[in-house]
């Protein structure tokens, strides 16, 4: 068995930040999960629906791997990415890193991982690989999935080779700290303002605050949109609250990030953003509860209420991001 020494196999709430935490702690950088999420400008919103989809999907973060790229840029980390269509080369790429006593991040389809009890295809799942033997790969996943876990090499190969939405070509990656990395507090303001600017000025109506407003209008049609409302609506609510989002569609994580930032930055704009994202987190959980209840009750009134909550959320988050976009390195202007 080959394993990386001195691994801190803490499982977090979200897959990508969990893997990033493993890789960075091995480099001597120990940041909280909310700080990793926030410095990676991870918060977003997308209303995603198409004829090929069984049911609409609400995404609360930037697309897979953008968070990793953003974080590497924010902390001046060297990000080494490998992709290939060859399964053999893909395994050689990661085995070489483990053999050099370093953990490696993998993007794959969680459907094929043997320790996953909920079998849903998700090609944007990220794990940290820290060891292997003749039969199994040893990974760190979220706390919800078990933290330090194992899956067969065969299942790992299937997960990495999967194709479909959000998948990557056997993507693996490492992070290396530079000799004099910047203090994270120096990168707080650029990370927040970049996230706010993208949220406030989305290129299409499905994204950012415009996407939340659109979701508020369309959620009222979900009983008619669903093939099986008793299955589809509670599943949508479950994904918002429990599918690695940290609760409230990633708003809990971003709220906690902003709260941590107040220890480094004295800013009225930051405090306004924190107050509003605290409210938004509560509202997202309320919306999820109403959506789940509509699936059980079959009542369109529950969805009308959920739509009203989402309408409020569009306003609350727009106001929050407007305040946060006004941040400057030396505090409020």
Provide a descriptive summary of the structure in words.
This is BtrH N-terminal domain-containing protein. Residues 155-324 form the DUF4872 domain. InterPro entries: BtrH_N, DUF4872. With 333 residues, this protein is α+β, with helices and mostly antiparallel strands. 48% of the residues lie in helices and 14% in strands. The protein folds into two domains: 2-30 and 78-176, Cathepsin B, Chain A (Alpha-Beta Complex), CATH 3.90.70; 184-325, Up-down Bundle (Four Helix Bundle (Hemerythrin (Met), subunit A)). The N and C termini lie far apart (57 Å).
The average pLDDT score comes to 94
Alpha-beta classification = alpha+beta
The amount of beta strand, in percent, is 5-15%
Which topology of the largest domain does CATH recognise?
A: Four Helix Bundle (Hemerythrin (Met), subunit A)
């Amino acid at each position: 068995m080959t394993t990386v020494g001195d691994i801190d196999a803490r499982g977090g709430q979200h897959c990508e930040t969990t893997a990033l935490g493993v890789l960075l702690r091995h480099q001597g950088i120990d940041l909280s999960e909310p700080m990793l999420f926030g410095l990676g400008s991870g918060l977003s919103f997308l209303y995603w629906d198409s004829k090929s989809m069984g049911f609409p999907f609400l995404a609360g973060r930037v697309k897979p791997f953008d968070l990793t790229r953003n974080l590497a840029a924010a902390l001046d980390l060297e990000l080494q990415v490998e992709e290939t269509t060859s399964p053999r080369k893909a395994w050689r790429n990661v085995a070489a890193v483990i053999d050099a006593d370093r953990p490696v991040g993998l993007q794959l389809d969680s459907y094929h991982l043997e320790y996953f009890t909920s079998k849903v295809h998700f090609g944007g799942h990220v794990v940290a690989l820290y060891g292997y033997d003749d039969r199994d790969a040893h990974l760190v996943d979220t706390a919800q999935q078990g933290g330090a876990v194992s899956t067969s090499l065969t299942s790992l190969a299937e997960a990495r080779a999967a194709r479909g939405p959000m998948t990557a070509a056997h993507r693996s990656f490492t992070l290396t700290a530079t000799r004099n990395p910047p203090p994270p507090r120096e990168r707080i303001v650029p990370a927040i303002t970049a996230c706010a600017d993208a949220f406030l000025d989305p290129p299409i109506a499905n994204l950012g605050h415009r996407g939340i407003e659109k979701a508020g209008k369309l959620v009222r049609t979900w009983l008619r949109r669903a093939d099986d409302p008793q299955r589809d609506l509670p599943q949508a609510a479950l994904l918002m609250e429990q599918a690695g989002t940290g609760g409230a569609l990633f708003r809990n994580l971003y709220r906690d990030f902003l709260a941590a930032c107040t220890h480094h930055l004295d800013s009225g704009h930051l405090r306004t953003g924190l107050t509003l994202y605290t409210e938004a987190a509560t509202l997202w959980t309320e919306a999820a509860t109403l959506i789940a209840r509509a699936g059980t009750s079959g009542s369109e009134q529950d969805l009308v209420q959920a739509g009203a909550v989402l309408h409020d959320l569009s306003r609350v988050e727009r106001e929050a991001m407007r305040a946060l976009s006004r941040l400057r390195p030396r505090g409020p202007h």
